[in-house]
Each structure stands twice: as structure tokens, then as C-alpha cells.
Specification:
There is one protein chain. This protein is 42% helix and 19% strand. By secondary structure, the chain is α/β, with parallel strands linked by helices. The chain folds into two domains: 2-125 and 253-324, D-Maltodextrin-Binding Protein, domain 2 (3-Layer(aba) Sandwich), CATH 3.40.190.150; 126-252, D-Maltodextrin-Binding Protein, domain 2 (3-Layer(aba) Sandwich). Strand 1, helix 2 (43-56) and strand 2 form a beta-alpha-beta unit. The structure holds aspartic acid. The site of aspartic acid has 15 residues, from helix 2, helix 6, helix 7 and strand 7. Aspartic acid binds at residues 38-39, 42-45, 159, 163-165, 187-189, 205-206.
């Protein structure tokens, strides 16, 4: 009986401590870390750094930093957050790979649906098809002829299995019925460096990374992956893949914010409120729009809707992965 009482008292003390910590969240002397599961300097990193800045004020001026835990198609960084203390000080910013990992990876050390709290969708981001600067083709028609002539010899970069670039590459190869050699990186920042250097031929990457490279003529750009042309000045002259003859091709990716499962509800509410404020921050919106991204303003910023959306995207892209037979261990 005495032992039972001790256990009950200890449990009550833990709940009270958590409650007090949740009340004080975020503590001024603590740092909130947003884990980015891709390399620094790439598109996911870019969104995270802009968001970290926009979150600081609504979170009471606390310091918000980015930790790049890159590799293995975002599974390393995602696992790190799934295992982190559920106290609101470690968050995950990831993109469409939350919807590709469950189908693509035969073994995952975490469960995307059950091991995270869903904090809201941040933005939707188009992608662009780009090539090394020495690519002889000057428009999509010439590129598609070059692809047919060079079948079996083409190196297509990606940010690891299940990444956005990998997904876009799978869809592109299947639409063209052209197998290319995948070259995985820890993110598309190092992939672009190699593209510029001519070590790889092609890459499909988010506009949040490619806009400045296209503007600076460091890479050749052929098309956008969206169903409509973009209005961003540097990208507005690029045709869509669909209008270039790649029938029905359309892919837009999104970024979301997550916390480890079990994070106390009051903490989740504070982060979600701060996220909603950040998504209305004119400075954040301006930066994102300049990079071709559209900041989320819809119901997907609510936890339940975010989760529902990721589940639907998992179905949609799961079918693409199954059709391509592209699995990872
Ligand atoms: N753009 C990458 C991808 O293809 C991720 C990154 O480097 O941020 O998923």
C-alpha cells in the first residue's frame, strides 16, 4: 500500500512538473531547435531559417535555431525528433517525404502517423527541372530529344530516397519511360553544387532553392512542375512540363511542422498559435513569394487537417512509389 502511494505521489509530481513547464513554455533561457532533415543551404533549410526568424517574436523572443540532421532521405532527422523529449524544444520541419517514407522504406524506426504531433502546414512549393550549365539543350523540346539520345547514360541527382527531388525524378522518368541513374545527396544544396560543376546532368528541385541559381544563370532551367505557370519574375517564362508534352504532369510539394508525440497540449497550442502568426508575417510572406512558394492560409494549419492532408498525400504518392517499384531498406 505504501509503495502504491509513493508511485501515485511520484506520478502526480511528474504531471505537475510537466504542467508547470507547459505553463512557462517557452522558457526564456531555453532554445527551440527546428530539426531540418536535409543539408544546410538547401530549400528545406531555407524555409526553416525564414520560419525560425518569423517564430521568434510570437514565441516571446526566445531563440529558435536550425539543426541540420541530414541523410538517408530525411529518415535520420525525422527519427531524431520522434525520439526527442516531448517538451516543445525540439521540432521537425519536413516536406512531402512525410508522405513518401511510409511506402518507400521497408524498415522505419518511427511511425509517421503515430510518433508526431502535427503542428500545421507552412507552404506549398513548386519544383523546377534544371540541368548542368553545359547541357546542350536550350529548351524542353531539345532536352527531351537529348534524353532519348542518351538513355542509360543520364545522371539524375536527388536528396535521398523519398525526398521531393527523388519523387519528382521518379514521376519524370516514368512519364518519359526513360531510366536514369539516381545520384543521391544529403540534400539538394550539395546536389546543385555538383550540377553546376557538371558531375550530374539533371535535377528536379524546389523553387526555394533554384530561383536564385536560375536568375544567376548558374544552371539551365527547362520547366516548372506545376499545372500552371508561375508568376515569380525569375520563373514566369518557364513552361509547365504538362504544356511541354509531359501529359498530366503536376507535382507541388509542401512543408509542415511537427513535434514529438506526447508534447503537452498547452505547448502545442502555443506553437500552433505562433505558427499562425508567423504565416501572416509580411516579411516571411514576401521572402517565400520571392522564391515561388505560397504560404499556407487554409485549414491545413490546424493539427487535425494537417494530419488528414498528410494521410491523403501518403495514399497519392504511395501509388506513385508502388508503380515505380522504388523501395528502400
Ligand atoms: N530539396 C530537397 C529534396 O529534394 C531537400 C533539401 O535539400 O532541402 O527533397
Amino acid at each position: 500500500m505504501k509503495t502504491m502511494l509513493k508511485i501515485a505521489l511520484a506520478a502526480a509530481a511528474t504531471v505537475a512538473a510537466f504542467g508547470a513547464a507547459a505553463q512557462d513554455y517557452p522558457a526564456k533561457d531555453k532554445t527551440i531547435t527546428i530539426v531540418v532533415p536535409y543539408a544546410a543551404g538547401g530549400p528545406t533549410d531555407r524555409v526553416a531559417r525564414d520560419l525560425a526568424e518569423a517564430l521568434r517574436k510570437p514565441l516571446g523572443g526566445v531563440s529558435v535555431v536550425v539543426d541540420n540532421a541530414a541523410g538517408a532521405g530525411s529518415t535520420i532527422g525525422s527519427a531524431k525528433v520522434a525520439r526527442a523529449a516531448p517538451d516543445g524544444y525540439t521540432l521537425l520541419l519536413n516536406h512531402v517525404s512525410m508522405a513518401t517514407m511510409p511506402t518507400m522504406y521497408r524498415k522505419l524506426s518511427f511511425n509517421v502517423a503515430n510518433d508526431f504531433e502535427y503542428l500545421g502546414i507552412i507552404n506549398d512549393v513548386p519544383m523546377t527541372l534544371i540541368a548542368r550549365p553545359s547541357m546542350p539543350a536550350n529548351n524542353y523540346k531539345e532536352l527531351s530529344a537529348w534524353i532519348q539520345q542518351n538513355k542509360g547514360k543520364i545522371n539524375l541527382g536527388n536528396a535521398g530516397q523519398g525526398s521531393a527531388s527523388h519523387l519528382c525524378g521518379l514521376m519524370f522518368q516514368s512519364a518519359l519511360q526513360a531510366d536514369m541513374t539516381p545520384v543521391p545527396y544529403k540534400g539538394t544544396a550539395p546536389a546543385i553544387t555538383d550540377l553546376i560543376g557538371g558531375q550530374i546532368d539533371l535535377l528536379c528541385d524546389q523553387t526555394t532553392n533554384t530561383t536564385s541559381q536560375i536568375e544567376g544563370k548558374k544552371v539551365k532551367a527547362y520547366a516548372v512542375t506545376t499545372s500552371k505557370r508561375l508568376t515569380t519574375p525569375a520563373l514566369k517564362d518557364l513552361p509547365t512540363l504538362a504544356e511541354s508534352g509531359v501529359k498530366d504532369f503536376s507535382v507541388t510539394i509542401w512543408h509542415g511542422l511537427y513535434a514529438p508525440k506526447g508534447t503537452p497540449a498547452p505547448v502545442l497550442t502555443k506553437i500552433n498559435d505562433a505558427l499562425k502568426t508567423a504565416l501572416k508575417d509580411p516579411e516571411f510572406i514576401k521572402k517565400q513569394e520571392g522564391l515561388g512558394a505560397v504560404v499556407a492560409t487554409d485549414k491545413r494549419v490546424e493539427s487535425a487537417e494537417h494530419k488528414k492532408f498528410v494521410a491523403a498525400e501518403t495514399e497519392k504518392f504511395g501509388a506513385v512509389i508502388k508503380a515505380a517499384g522504388s523501395y528502400a531498406d
